Amino acid sequence: MGAPVAYDPAEMRAAQAEAARLRAACDMLKGAPKSSRDDPNFVESFFSASRLHFIGMWKTRLESLMLSGVIGGPTPNPGPGAQVIFHVDLDCFFASVAESEHPLFSGKPLAVCHSNNAKGTAEISSANYEARKYGIRAGMFMAGAKQLCPDLIVVPYNFERYQEVSEQAYKIMMACSACVQPLSCDEAFLDVTGLGDPFQLASRLRADIQAATGCTASVGIGHNLLIARLATKRAKPDGQCHIQEAEAASAMLSLELSDLPGVGWATSKKLASLGLQSVADLQAWSKARLQAELGDKTGAALWDASRGIDTRRVAPPAVRKSLGAEVNWGVRFDSPQDATRFLGKLAEEVWTRMGAAGVQGRSLTLKLKKRKEGVYNPVKFMGHGICDNLSRTHTFHRPAHSAATIHRAACDMLTSLHVPHADIRGIGLGMSRGL
Ligand code: DCP
Ligand code: CA
Ligand code: CA
């Protein structure tokens, strides 16, 4: 019997975000499976909802590409001067891929969406800059977009191609600098300190990405991460922009408070209650006053951010030590065999992810959400409702070598937890390297 695993808060938040994304996947698949009860392939459907699968997997794939060491760019050379940071972001990524594949579309308003129904509530994933002239934005419903631009060209997703373009762009960035921090499938920070003239480096990087992928990228250049990211906003589309250190504080004035790092919903509300509505308001306050109102840490961080001060470093990925897959939505079992089968699919998903990430695992954790006594119907349809969280960990003698091995160990742990199949509302498997 293993000890329960402690999860750190950042990991928990990541897991919650993942669960939210997966819920969105189910929304996207409306008309498709509603729960594990209706569909024996629920787990595959759940994880292969391609958009979500892609978004969930990009990081794993890119990190293993970076850690494989196949491409070794020059190591930054810190001197006495300031750092030079690039923030690279592909322009209207999914839409650009569509344009590069169909030159006939080029220069016309175009959006990527899984449905072209002009009355529909399908959400736009990416709009090219031509479409943006009509006010079309990502996240907008198709019906609204078609009203703004009846001639809008709507193209479906092409995940294989996004994957290829993303990897090509990353390889070019990795050849530019050994210090690359992936932020998303189309976006990264690079430390290029001491590697040459920043403007020329950025031009070459953008030209190389365009030549290899047919898609344009923009580059923001700054002496820290915050300023580089801000510069990208000015550079877009298909451009580059260097904000100098001396301009940093005044450049920050163009941002909303909610654009500052660490300013979420709660901090925004607090700032509003203090009468602080803009970056300029924030700059007018002393550090001591901000700290008195918001606490030492938050106060100091906001004082810095409002002036464009940022001490973070570009952080390349560290070797991944654990990964997992969990489903806390739509889980309803009619028999113990149902639960066993479900675990089999989950084991396959974990095994696939381990392969993609190049992770070896000796320590397997089963997490269960058990319906709380007396709670029958979760408020949210097919959600997990109020649950007790249970977990068990199994340590293999040597790294798990197949989905079947993982499945067997998971089933043993499930049995030992003695949870009636009908009470299971969520189920997850996590694999780590163990000791
Ligand atoms: N994406 C999505 N749904 C969203 C936001 C983004 O599917 N609500 C996908 C499609 C985007 C890709 O992620 O093309 C990258 O997101 P960005 O925020 O970088 O947006 P774009 O690359 O589309 O445009 P921009 O030129 O503003 O970066
Ligand atoms: Ca982008
Ligand atoms: Ca992006």
Characterise this structure.
By secondary structure, the protein is an alpha+beta fold. Among the domains are: 55 residues, DNA polymerase, domain 1 (Orthogonal Bundle); 111 residues, 2-Layer Sandwich (Dna Ligase, domain 1), CATH 3.30.1490.100. It is 43% helix and 15% strand. The strands form three sheets. Strands 5-6-1-7-8 form a five-stranded mixed β-sheet. Strands 9-12-10-11 form a four-stranded antiparallel β-sheet, with helices on one face. β5 and β6 form a beta hairpin. α7 runs antiparallel to α8. The longest helix has 22 residues. The N terminus is likely disordered. Bound molecules: 2'-deoxycytidine-5'-triphosphate and calcium ion (2 copies). The site of one calcium ion has 4 residues, from loops.
